Amino acid sequence: MCDHVSTTTPSTRKQTSxxxxxxxVYKLGAVGGDWLDKRVAGGGLxxxxxxxxxxxxxxxxxxxxxxxxxxxxxxxxxxxxxxFDPSMSEVVYNGPYExxxxxxxxxxxxxxxxISFEVTGGLLFRQMHHWSALVFMxxxxxxxxxxxxxxxxxxxxxxxxxxxxxxxxxxxVAGFSGYSLPDDVLSGNGLRVVEGLxxxxxxxxxxxxxxxxxxxxxxxxxxxxxxxxxxxxxPAMILGLIAIHLVLLVLHKHTQxxxxxxxxxxxxxxxxxxxxxxxxGGFFFLVFGIITMISATTSINGVWNYGPYDPSPVSAGSQPxxxxxxxxxxxxxxxxxxxxxxxxxxxxNMLIPMGIYGLLLAALALYPFLxxxxxxxxxxxxLNDLPxxxxxxxxxxxxxxxxxxxxxxxxTNDLIAIALDLSINDLTWALRIGFFVVPVLSxxxxxxxxxxxxxxxxxxALHGEETSRIVRTDTGNMIEIHAPLSEYDRWVLVxxxxxxxxxxxxxxxxxxxxxxxxxxxxxxxxxTPAELREALEHHGHEKHVIDELTGGDYRTxxxxxxx
Amino acid sequence: xxxxSSKEGGGFPNPGLPPHVxxxxxxxxxxxxxxxxxxxxxxxxxxxxxxxFIAAYFLVTPTGINLFAEEKSxxxxxxxxxxxxxxxxxxxxxxxxxxxxxxxxxxxDEEMVEERHDIRSSDETREAAVGIINDxxxxxxIARRPVIVTAMVAxxxxxxxxVLAPLSTLGPLPGNxxxxxxxxxxxxxRLARDHDGTPIKLSDVAxxxxxxxxxxxxxxxxxxxxxxxxxxxxxxxxxxPKLAKNExxxxxxxxxxxxxxxxxxxxxxxxxxxxxxxHHMLCxxxxxxxxxxxxxxxxxxxxxxxxxxxxxxxxxxxxxxxxGDFIEPIGPSFWNIxxxxxx
Lengths: 563, 343
Description:
The complex is a heterodimer. Chain A is mostly helical.
């Protein structure tokens, strides 16, 4: 077992020499440390934190990317607030951008033009702000699905999953409110869509839009109000939730992938100080550098091309930022349904899409609790699942992503129709059908793929790797030579848990029995120690036969001749 | 009861950490020196980036001094953005690259193991916690003083209602504002071209053409002109009356010239695209398609109601005028759109 594994001292670690202990820097550090410790008990914090172990895996970096792009958002956003004027008072432009000289526009739009054209570094910081917002949302989604597919949301991390989920929703609010601030044609039409959606709510809709816009759309209040939401309320909430997210991360200790020496009771990796201080700290600068590089070379959201907001024009090919696409897609796919009851209107063409968005988000938020109810698994989990070992969960996750993607694709149906020379009506119909068919299909395909990967891994664990070398016996039988796995390689393939459907009765409700059947009816038996013993024994016999035939030399005739 | 199945014989034993494989820099002095040199060089490269960033900030500006382009030209902005950005990118990226390379090549890479502990508190701690809560509740006397508790619940329940008061002052009541537009408030107005504001004669409207229009009296001097524009925006189209499919709709126009609201009845985008061949209007936001030969009925997409028509006439001088408002409220449907119509 692994019980003998304990904290090791790396043999390569350099011994601190006596000279270094007496150096000036060391003394200075001691004095400073003493001063701080007496005031903030820094010693305890360092003892608690600095040697905490974090496991290493590339898929653990997505959350870091999200965190770092948020920091970049704060830095670039602070720069922008120094020059942006969130005012809807009307001005006539006479700045350096010739195409708009003489145009009437809001002060918000004018100051956006000033930031872009006149403030040194302004365009760069605007583009960094926008690019890091896009990266922030990508990173959040990818991080979320890493957590989902590896089951890292299981006990004890369900609440942290909800914190992360809320951060994702707040990210969208932050993105949308910021996107609206420049008061250009595209963002103004985005706001008008929000106004239309809000207005459609039964009974309260018209009151809500009057309160939100301070009168009729667009009014002169919405941009100052969104500014406060964008630079104060939402970032403060995000910061607070990030703090909770990270405190819980430290409390729970990070999950790790299964591997030799890794158990539910330990965490194997590298210490915060110095390894992660350098790796994670360095990674922040890498993300910062890459986003800056993109912003220096690739322009984004050129609001000067769209023109100032005016309620009359809109251009074809108007899409929101990628993370809001899915909320637009449903509006494009829904048929024109509306009913009138006692003279009052229910706009299903807006209420149904909004209901679907709510259901999709709720499904994501509540999944950990659903799965815990199905499995009845009350243990703590710190070892991640490999996605193919949980076919139904993985299938459901892929189905969710496909639903999301169909909606996002639907929001670009005009661009796709033009690019592929299709009829927009046919394409919309295809996506309407796809919305129902694709998630179901992708669930089954994913589930079957996972099961067949499990089958292959099972064979691999039992029989080892195929070497593509075949020996013919005297009787004409063909035997392929298999190279057995090392104990360490095999462990990853045989360590996972196995679940079975439950029968109704004995405290198991009929519904839950059905649910366990849905989840675990199709399963691949994991390798048992007895099976492995048998397989190895069989291997021994086979090896004996092969060795007799080959004399223990597995090289092919051509390899032999080349030596 | 859980769905986990027990493992035969407790499953396989964990083989423990595999033997460590040393890196080049751990076993070769030369490799270690090389790694050290690379890390240091990358840190120094970052300094170069910082210098470049600061220099570019003052020497490659969009509106002032610019080493690479004419002052205030578009390419001055392009150069400024590029050089400042590259300077900053180099400055930050290479700090990161250096730190990560340092960690990966020179810091210990033998995995260390930390034990986990149950998240749940020990039984003693739990007992102590329950004791503290009980003692506190006892000391507060909450169970013995129902009057205070009732009053407190009343206070805490009432206070949130107070929030409604400031919230209600965020905007006016809708009244019937959403039911009427500038056309209705000022009947008999000429139809004017959007943006240049010139009125349109019947004879100006060529067959199969489209005009984006506003009421002539709605100018940038008008109070709340943007809000009014958001509701009054309309189009006029002209097609061969032989194509007409809707007599009521034709009766509200003049010689095949019809005026419709430009605001989509789905979620309110301007329906800005017109197909001359088919006489369809298409909303670029969500592709609702309206047939103007049939009273702007919806023929595809998510909208439900036709684009509201604006009845028009011709005045003595031959100009198109609107005697009143659209025949029903414009834009997205709402709860009481069919109620409460009086001005």
